[in-house]
């Protein structure tokens, strides 16, 4: 295209060249330019189509893997007693799926469950040894997804290999000292002073006996879970100009600080980012190019906070940019993080997904009026509750904002 334009310029400035030749040269140059532009457009469109296909295949395989995993757990434990990882609970099974440890980050409980062997007594030394091993592993071993959940990311996908210790900094011994890898066995034996509970469960292969140990996390477990992420949140918040309490409020609402959070969408990590939407948009903004974002990349807390905070910023500066009051803009961004900008518009103009038109209405309201309107008129109850929870949780982190 550049060569055609240069040739045209030379021809038009040449002396003694007939007008018809000028016209022919112009037509040739225009055709060459249009052909080149058309080819470039086709290549770009094909690249986007290929990338979308890659995303769709990756997400579909993740969903199939989760269904296979859940079927295997249901077969071993029965549907009513099966546990799978969720947004706010980390669940880890042994390789045979007959014992598990789980951490409920929202309610602050740690639990170990074992399926008893035929004739095995629930208070036997062997059972206590197995429970102690599960507890020790939770403290000393990095969290890993079950082998049935692992999906190989597409070639060129963004990946990471951060080691995540789901109970790091959360526990203490009776003497007040922090539980570490070095004294994990001491904690396991301390926990075994709590009573064991036995019950009979129904499974596809018949009735089985299950024994459980439940142990409470410290009363300030949410604060303990949040504190390690403050340096990263503060660094990103200052760099891109987003509120520190907002980021923490979203994290607590989305995952209760479960670094291995996952949902069936699928969404991953602290800020529950969806690989093909929020994570993808944020990755493009941060790194300047489109790329498939793997689950392992989003389980890395630094990556998750970077992309999650960036997505919150994008919502405020892109979709909600016409909202003039910063508090109202932030409230609408919180709702959009959960349900999308179109549904925020519907709250103000029934049947419309035009956020530009909705912004004109929002700009005539006070921030408190905007909040109450969202609470009462967002299309889904989940989002109505979501905006309330995030705003309430933000209050917990006001002291961390500089």
Write the layout of secondary structure elements.
Layout: H1 2-13, H2 19-77, E1 89-93, E2 99-104, E3 109-115, H3 125-140, H4 184-191, E4 197-203, E5 206-216, H5 221-226, H6 230-240, H7 244-255, E6 262-263, E7 267-268, H8 278-287, H9 295-299, H10 301-319, H11 326-339, H12 341-348, H13 355-362, H14 367-377, H15 381-394
Antiparallel strand pairs: 1-2, 2-3, 3-5, 4-5, 6-7
Topology pattern, helix = H, strand = E? HHEEEHHEEHHHEEHHHHHHHH
Content of β-strand: 5-15%
Q: The biggest beta sheet, please?
A: 5 strands, antiparallel
- Give me the CATH architecture of the largest domain, please: Orthogonal Bundle
Q: Can you tell me the overall shape?
A: globular
Q: CATH topology of the largest domain, which one?
A: Lysozyme
Question: How many runs of DSSP E, i.e. beta strands?
Answer: 7
**Unreliable spans:** none
Our count of helices gives 15
Which CATH class of the largest domain? Mainly Alpha
Q: What is the overall pLDDT average? A: 90
Structural class: alpha+beta
Helix content range: 40-55%
Strand order of the largest sheet: 1-2-3-5-4
Ends apart, CA distance between termini: 53 Å
Q: How large, in whole angstroms, is the Cα Rg?
A: 28 Å
- The total tally of domains equals 3
